[in-house]
Amino acid sequence: MKLLVFSDLHGEEAALESLQRIAPDFDHVLICGDISRSVSFAEDVLKAFPTAFIIPGNWDSEQVNTVLASSRQWLHGKRVKLGKSLSIAGFGYSPPTPFGTFGELSEQDILSGMAKLKMDSNTLLMLHCPPKGHFDQGMLGRHIGSESILKMIKENKPLAAFFGHAHEHEGTAKLGQTTLVKLPPANSMRACSVVLAEHKISQNFVRHGKSSDLPCNKKLSVEFISL
Q1: DSSP secondary structure string for all residues of 187-223
Q2: By percentage, how much of the chain surpasses pLDDT 70?
């Protein structure tokens, strides 16, 4: 199974066109928030990826949230089966930011909302915000991740968690049994390709035609691709 995963389009038309061109090569598309503040752009995203799973970011407008939430692609606060043995669960938004964006929740709301999701070691978790302390340090040195997301990952041990939000970072790490995948911002013409094969994985990052091999673990294959 091959997944195209991205976050933080931020209304960038060229990035949308590039992603749409490569999407047919994948079995599923996962969109992890901060899509647009424009309803028309959000509608274009829904048309471009009619079977995608979508969660909201903090930056998406109220009107865009309404449009996305009315679509079949909306996965915020939901869990669905993905193949025979895997499931995928989604939880968007972020804790409060200095910018007062629409999609901001208190840590308690994040905790109570995620507690309703059924997650286990066979779950792929779609997030917008990083767990606290992991790929979450902003330009001013402030950690913008969520303590509640960190707690829920530690307790539920999903197979992998995908997230964006902090544009300054990308990469993978382990949090207990969970593989964390920090997505690069899609508006910079980057995304993530994930290959799942019987829960086995190797990791390879690719940018501008160059690659660097990372240590293999046994569950997920992650490859960054340049669009």
Answers
A1: GGTEEEEEE-BTTB--EEEEETTEEEE----SS-EEE
A2: 86
